[in-house]
Every structure is written in C-alpha cells, then in structure tokens.
Amino acid sequence: MTRCDWGETENDLMRHYHDEEWGVATYDETETFELMTLEMMQAGLSWQTVLNKRAHFKVAFAQFDAAKVAQFDDADVARLMADAGIIRNRRKIDATIANAQLLVKWHEAGRSLNAYLWTFVDGKPQVNRYATMADLPGQTPLSQRVSKALKKEGFKFVGPTIVQSWLEALGILDDHLASCTVNHVKTK
C-alpha cells in the first residue's frame, strides 16, 4: 500500500486517520461539528497534535454534541482553559461554543450544516489527484467561497485554509495524491 506522504508514518493515529477518515465522505452532523472544531483547533499547530488530543477533546466538548456545547458557560470556559488535555486557546474555545449555538439554531430551523456544505459540490465529492504534497493547495476557490458563506451565516474561525482542511476531512474534497493506493471510495 502506498499512502500520501503525510500518511506514511509510524504513528498509528495518523496512519488510521489517513486510511480510514481523510477524504472519506461523511454525512453525519455530529462528526461535521467535531471535524470543524478539530480543524479550528489545529490552526497554527500540527494535525498530529490534534489527533493526539482528539479523545480528550471528545470528553471535554461533550462528545461534540452541539446542543450541549451551546450551553457551555463561563465556568465551562474556565474548565476548558485549565484542561491540559486539549488545546487551550480562548479564541478557539469561544468560537467552538458560538458555532455550537449557531448550529443549534440551524437545527431548530430544520437546517443541517453537513447538508449545506455538500450543496457546494452538488452532493458529489470533488476528487483531486495531485502529484505531490507541494501541489496540494492550502486553499482553493471552493474553500474561499464556503468560508465567505459560513462567515456570512455567522460561523467563527472558518477562514479559507481551515475550511479547505475541513472539507478534506469531511470527504467533500478527496485530495489524496495520485500515487496513493488507499481505497477512498467509501462513506462514514
């Protein structure tokens, strides 16, 4: 098996993420919120750091149940800021809570963030097969368009580079290298 360069690692979490999650289409709303949060938390850090803390993030953020996270108050923020098991960045924590509150409003209105994101690609994963990791863009016209739309809707910490990574994580974009032989045609 040949993987994308970053998936060729001895680290089990990274290898599993590459082989089983990244670029695999998901339609689950909770997973969409989880990956949104994790991609926000990763900004400025390595994805390995996020994966190492992922299990603890799930506990700290109520299994990424948006309705529960939306109710987090100042005591919860203080708890999160003191929690060495997560990335303790106040702006990112505040954005996660604000995004959960907005997501709850969407759900109450019968809207789905996951379904909304898929409309940008007409419900079909956009498959790219770049030759090298250097060819893989940090952002694209698609991520710029989605970022702008999400910001207009009121979501926080959703710049085009974060959105690019998030769309890849959700499988809306499948950006595995052309040389990668991992079977990506599956859904979560």
From TrEMBL:
Any one GO BP annotation for this protein: base-excision repair
Residues the entry annotates as binding Zn(2+): C4, H18, H176, C180
Pfam families in alphabetical order: Adenine_glyco (PF03352)
InterPro entries, sorted: Adenine_glyco, DNA-3mA_glycosylase, DNA_glycosylase
Single GO molecular function: DNA-3-methyladenine glycosylase activity
Transmembrane segments: none
Record keywords, A-Z: Metal-binding, Zinc
The keyword Nucleus is assigned to this record: no
Protein name: DNA-3-methyladenine glycosylase I
